[in-house]
Amino acid sequence: MSTTRPYSPGDRGPEPSGASGNSEGGGVPGTGESDEGVTAGQAAAIGASASPSPAQAVTAPESAVARTENGGRQVRRLSFDDQSGVVPLARDFTRQALYAWGWLPSSTADQRAAAEDVLLVVSELVTNACLHAEGPDELRITCEKKVIRLEVSDRGTGQPAPRTPHRAGRPGGHGMFIVERLCLDWGVVRTPGVAGKRVWAELGAPA
Predict the structure, then answer these.
(1) Domain span at 170
(2) Higher pLDDT, 38 or 46
(3) How do the residues of the chain divide into helix, strand and coil, expressed in percent and rounded to 5?
(4) pLDDT value for 4
(5) pTM above 0.90, yes or no
(6) Does 19 map to a domain?
(7) Range 19-39 burial, b when 16+ CB lie within 10 A, else e
(8) Is there a cis peptide before residue 192, judged by omega within 30 degrees of 0?
(9) In this structure, what CATH number is given to the domain that contains residue 103?
């Protein structure tokens, strides 16, 4: 399933104050690809829990292997095996990628909003995996032609979907609504014969 965003990529949407206790129509999130593979433990070891100031560049862990694929696509991967605090870990790992790929530090309000959208969406996808699929397995982040693709893999069988009707004042249940609103497109990928799924979402840089 996928949904096309009716808003411009620079639209901030809800404030990115962290995961919002999202909910899906049944199950949960999915996965991502250039290969800067690093385990969650390695990311945590370099201070993944500390949020940098706007002017502070975040460096990738020494153990990460950065590759640029044919066509200029860049990919980073983060494993969540046996890790706790996966939402802030995913946000900080994603923030590192945004610094490495030039989305941060931002020089305009639109650029800042686009980066905040990416961080908010990754929080929502990982939170949904925690709530509905016993936690995420891996986060993959791809950057190609000014589009960021987030993919969260999990072992859940449910189908993510915005809760309808959406009620802004209701506590919880806003996660996939936020993803639908902020993203250019999103969807779910399943592999026949393989347990689980990947939930992906794509966001664009401001024009």
Answers:
(1) 37-50+66-204
(2) 38
(3) 25, 20, 55
(4) 38
(5) no
(6) no
(7) bbebbbeebbbbbbbbebbbb
(8) no
(9) 3.30.565.10
* pLDDT value, residue 67: 62
Q: Residue 26: inside a domain, yes or no?
A: no
Q: Is the pLDDT of residue 116 over 70?
A: yes
Nearest alpha-carbon partner for 154 in 116, 199, 187, 122: 199
Domain count, the chain: 1
Residues 6+ apart with CB under 8 A from 78: 38, 39, 40, 43, 89, 90, 93, 138, 139, 140
Query: What local confidence, expressed as pLDDT, does residue 124 receive?
Result: 93
Domain assignment present for residue 58? The answer is no
3-state secondary structure of 68: strand
Distance, in Å, from the CA atom of 189 to the CA atom of 39, rounded to the nearest integer, reads 23
Angle separating helix axes 109-132 and 175-182, nearest 10 degrees? 150
Cα–chain center distance at 107: 22
User: What DSSP string describes 112-172?
Assistant: HHHHHHHHHHHHHHHHHHHHHSSSEEEEEEEEETTEEEEEEEE---------SS--TTSSS
Cα–Cα distance, 142 to 144 (Å, whole number)? 7
Among 16, 38, 14, which Cα is nearest to 87's? 16
Higher pLDDT, 36 or 50: 36
Q: Assess if residue 7 is contained within a domain.
A: no
pLDDT in tens, 157-183: 877 766 555 455 554 555 788 899 999
